[in-house]
Amino acid sequence: MLEKRSINHIAARLTQPFLMAGIAGVGYHRLSVYSCLGAMGWHRHLDEDEVFLGHTGTLTLETSWGDVALPPGHLIRIPKGLPHRSYAAALALALLVQTDGLPNRRNGHQPPSNPGSGRLGAVSVADQAARLINVYHPRRLTVSDGLALSVQVCLGAQDWHRHDGEQLVLCYQGHIAVEAQGGQVTLAPGELTLVEAGAFHRVVAAEPATAVTMAEIL
Prior knowledge:
Jelly Rolls, 2 domains
């Protein structure tokens, strides 16, 4: 049975900055909404990547590789081991993808003197969707610890299909219906549903719409 979940409704539980509220699990990953206001302490995750997807407001990811602003609809992956912190001058909300069940070890309050080198850049969901030519042909945004985040343009009825693992479908723009065995849900922007592993399903859109999907690479 499909269940509709609203990011904004879940975010209403966050009464102070730097809290997270769980939204859904996808395999051994979890999707949460994160509240940011002010600056978090420097830290790093030794065992997992993190993916931030801007939802409302603008937060900045400060890292030892440089700083990246993250407005709504932009995504960034922070690789494991990279010292970082989030900062927002005004309240900002972001979706946060992490692994579930691994030790969440954080150490250090300042970046090390020699953190290595690399480059970070935010990816615009809308810009990536604009590059798509065919409907229901996803374009990959990033991969984090075996979880693929993709964007697809929806119009008309998708072919019925199924996945070996769970798939999360997030409506980004427009309105979509997700149909599966046992029912369907209609999603507006900021709403999502989780399709169980092996369930036949499809997405239907009467007008052009955009969806972000999350599924483990099996």
